[in-house]
Amino acid sequence: WRVPDARLARRHRMNIGTIVSDASMAVQYVGGAKIGSVEESFAARMKPGDCFLFGGRMLELVRIREMTAWVRRASGKRPAVPRWNGGRMPLSTTLADAVVQQLALAGEGKYDTPELQCVRPLLEIQQQWSALPTPQTLLAEVLKTREGWHLFLYPFAGRHVHLGLANLIAWRVAQHAPRTFSIAVNDYGFELLSATEVDWPTLLPQVLRAGHDAEAQDAIAHHDADAALLHEVLESLNASELAQRRFREIARVSGLIFQGYPGEKRSNKQLQASSSLFWEVFRKYDPANRLLLQAEQELLAQELEIGRLRDSLARINGQRLVLQTLARPTPFAFPLMVERFREKLSNESVADRIARMVAQLEKAAGGAVPVGGVDDVKAGMAFGQEGGGKHKGNGADAGTGRPRRERKASRPLPPL
Question: May I ask the CATH class of domain 93-220+314-325?
């Protein structure tokens, strides 16, 4: 290949080695003021009409245009909770399998390693109140609280796979009857919360084994299970919006859009507007364009981890489902509940609420309620933050210990 235009060749050399990162998207009321920002990967997963919690407010997504998510106030629906993905690397398959092997040893009463000895009290409570997962079993827990009906499932497949699994299972269940779910995920499992009653003992084995969509059934009949799974995953998520955001990165690296000379950086809004134009033109006039196919492939491989999702479903099909009905949250379920309610608006702080729940669970487990539990929880939540774990002293700045400077008296107003 030879580039006859020196200016085009110079632009291409400047884009070599481009590192693209996830941008922030502004959240703004329709016809109102901006209220903050969320990570683009979170906003791009939602469809118009979906609700999420932001700053203690329940908001409904109206539309996404360029780098702004337009919202309005909502009520009565189970919302999603925004998350920032930085520093949240999912468990690898090898590490997840090793964790399940260790849990299986703990289920047999073998606490040989120092790590298992450290978490032995929690694992014994988990086994007493519910069960411990093993390579041959899939643990599911059902709990009824004032918030609604909870399902906790522990595939131990990593955060990204659990996000895809949670959306897939919620979408399959919603094919039976219209329902709204609140989803929380971590590296061990995920939670589905519904305000209406769900017959999980009957529905869960069905939705884990096969889909309920007509096209998916036809694909399975033609021995094309991969196409059926792909169809369901794309239906359960806002895949077109995710692919369009992924196309922006591809357009930047390929040189379709110019991100500016050194010292002349363009905003993400300008880049998104330019890439959106290319996206619409390619989709309309050149649907087989290789850059479009690349965007879809990267979406499935990186955002949704479709390969690990397929392997996880295949492994689940070979496992025996162990469904436990709970009287209270187990040590495995408790972190998932904290993931979900930490963004909710309440006159009770998150640390106070966690400390109260820990005290209740400690009492139910037969242990002593820890003294000063709220301070311990606050110190744990501040871990890793600047000045975390240090309390404010009298007249001293938090985290520095230096005496606070006295405030100057206000200057009197001039006479009228």
Answer: alpha beta
